[in-house]
């Protein structure tokens, strides 16, 4: 097998890889890079697309699916596969992050989407693809790609220690493409959740919690003690995510359903509520939070940011000014989680995606087989019967 690194290596964003074996080529994920412009906004896909048999999407966050309309505009006419949950969430992501002209010409192609279930195995000639629940969002998956006795695992985004979602074990492999978003962050997910819970409790009289619509929104709901509000446009999606029972840890669904039923619906133009308010997206780049972050700043409402903050986004700007607090809620593996995944996979040669060089080098001090020399645009061969 041969792996082309199309995005997310040596950088955060536009996550994408291509796996080829003989004349067959599969693409996994098609993300965009928030804050980038021109060609750097999209995966580094060059040349004709005729050789791409299928595109498989791990989940519907912008750094994994935001370039789908762009690829269709480039002439891609092959197969597109994803879970039912990703299929439902992807159109909203494209509405926020796709180029407007591409999206008008090539809207989300729902009638072309082939649905698979997390845990299902797929076959493309002599390439077998196994999937597993990622622990990151409802319907999110990792991919194990196998041919001629060699196996590559592309983790996409995973959360080994989520307090809400289930992650299936990563299998042993010859090459592991690992979610290195947090580098060697030693702070446990539970410690960060407790810090966020304490911050929210201290601002229970009113605060803004920008969050992605899928995934972290449920993690935040689980962390809030007491009454809270949501932007009314989020309710249907949150309800649909909670309904995916096998994506959630035992007992979590019932508790989240109870909390969502009690949540206050907030709508644009209403006075800001006297309780915590969840609104998507997490950076203020799109969605209701694009309007709410400036409004909260104007009104002096406390703001807590809990995820990735690309330079130049509204959330980043306010944090730089000292007008917004930031406590990262782990929706990717921290150090202990990534070491455990690597060991579970048999300590294979490993590439880290979704992080810059400094974070990658810090993680390499704990994962001895982690390569720090691979970048977007590089190719990594996986010769038959050997490890790379």
TrEMBL record:
Q: Report the domain of life of the source organism.
A: Bacteria
Keywords, in A-Z order: Hydrolase
Looking up SUPFAM superfamilies in the UniProt record yields:
Metallo-hydrolase/oxidoreductase
Q: For this protein, what is any one GO molecular function term?
A: RNA endonuclease activity
Any signal peptide, and if so, which residues? Answer: none
InterPro entries recorded for this chain?
MBL, Metallo-B-lactamas, RibonucZ/Hydroxyglut_hydro
Question: Which positions fall inside the Metallo-beta-lactamase domain?
Answer: 13-199
**Protein's name according to its UniProt entry:** MBL fold metallo-hydrolase
**Natural source organism:** Manganibacter manganicus
């Amino acid at each position: 097998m041969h792996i082309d690194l199309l995005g997310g290596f040596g950088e955060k964003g536009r996550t994408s890889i291509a796996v080829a074996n003989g004349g067959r080529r599969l693409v996994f994920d098609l993300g965009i890079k928030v804050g980038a412009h021109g060609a750097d906004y999209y995966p580094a896909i060059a040349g004709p697309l005729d050789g791409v048999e299928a595109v498989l999407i791990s989940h519907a966050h912008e750094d994994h699916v935001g370039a789908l309309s762009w690829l269709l505009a480039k002439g891609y006419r092959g197969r597109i596969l994803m879970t039912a949950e990703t299929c439902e969430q992807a159109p909203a992501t494209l509405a926020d992050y796709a180029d407007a002209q591409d999206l008008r010409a090539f809207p989300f192609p729902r009638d072309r989407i082939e649905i698979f279930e997390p845990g299902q195995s797929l076959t493309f000639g002599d390439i077998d693809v196994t999937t597993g629940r990622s622990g990151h969002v409802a319907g999110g998956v990792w991919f194990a790609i196998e041919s001629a006795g060699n196996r590559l695992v592309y983790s996409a985004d995973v959360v080994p220690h989520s307090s809400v979602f289930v992650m299936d074990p990563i299998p042993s492999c010859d090459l592991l493409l690992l979610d290195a978003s947090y580098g060697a962050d030693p702070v446990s997910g539970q410690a960060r959740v407790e810090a966020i819970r304490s911050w929210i409790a201290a601002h229970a009289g009113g605060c803004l919690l920008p969050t992605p619509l899928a995934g972290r929104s449920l993690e935040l709901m689980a962390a809030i003690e007491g009454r809270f509000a949501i932007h009314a446009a989020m309710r249907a999606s949150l309800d649909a995510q909670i309904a995916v029972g096998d994506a959630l840890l035992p007992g979590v669904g019932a508790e989240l359903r109870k909390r969502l039923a009690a949540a206050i619906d907030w709508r644009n133009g209403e006075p800001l509520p006297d309780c915590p308010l969840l609104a998507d997206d997490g950076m203020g780049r799109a969605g209701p939070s694009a309007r709410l972050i400036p409004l909260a700043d104007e009104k002096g409402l406390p703001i807590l940011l809990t995820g990735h903050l690309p330079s130049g986004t509204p959330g980043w700007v306010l944090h730089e000014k000292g007008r917004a607090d930031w406590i990262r809620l782990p929706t990717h593996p921290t150090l202990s989680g990534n070491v455990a995944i690597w060991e579970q996979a048999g300590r294979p040669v490993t590439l880290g995606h979704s992080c810059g060089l400094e974070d990658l080098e810090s993680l390499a001090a704990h994962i001895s087989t982690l390569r720090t020399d691979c970048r977007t645009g590089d190719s990594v061969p996986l010769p038959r019967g050997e490890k790379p």
